[in-house]
Design brief:
By secondary structure, the chain is α/β, with parallel strands linked by helices. It contains two helices and eight strands, in the order βββαβββαββ. The longest helix has 17 residues. The mean pLDDT is about 95.
Length: about 150
């Protein structure tokens, strides 16, 4: 699985102008299930994110996790993280098929909640408008192949 984490002070996702998910202080997480990914990988990614120390402590150092700061996460599915850029038009054949992608996206969200991180979501497969205030800015790309 792949994910892009952005430390945020505020993030929202809207569908046709309607707010469907939001978070305050915490993480905006864009997540993509890749072909061959499993529930175990979704759980591994969620556990790593819950423990990742990317929030500032009282000395201004990135030393606290999302749980330590009482933050929450807005998780949005984004198959374009699987982009193959060998040509000028991205290909997405390495993304999981839609049914698998949705199942793994929802499993990841549940696994993150099981790690005591409150989770709001977008809607899988929908055309969404995402807005956020990146805090820092801090943006981290993750791939379960590297964990």
């Amino acid at each position: 699985m792949r994910a892009v984490l952005q430390r945020v002070t505020d993030a929202q996702v809207r569908i046709e102008g309607q707010l469907v998910g939001a978070t305050g202080k915490g993480l905006m997480i864009l997540v993509c299930a890749m072909a061959g990914d499993t529930e175990a990988l979704a759980e591994k990614l969620a556990a790593k994110i819950a423990k990742l120390r990317i929030f500032k402590d009282h000395q201004g150092k990135m030393n606290l996790s999302i749980r330590d700061v009482g933050g929450s996460a807005l998780v949005v599915s984004q198959f374009t993280l699987a982009a193959d850029l060998r040509g000028n038009r991205p290909g997405f054949s390495t993304a999981a098929p839609p049914a698998d992608g949705e199942r793994l996206y929802l499993h990841f969200c549940n696994a993150l909640q099981s790690e005591n991180v409150p989770v709001a979501t977008g809607t899988f497969g929908a055309d969404m408008a995402v807005s956020l205030v990146n805090d820092g800015p801090v943006t981290i790309w993750m791939d379960t192949d590297q964990l």
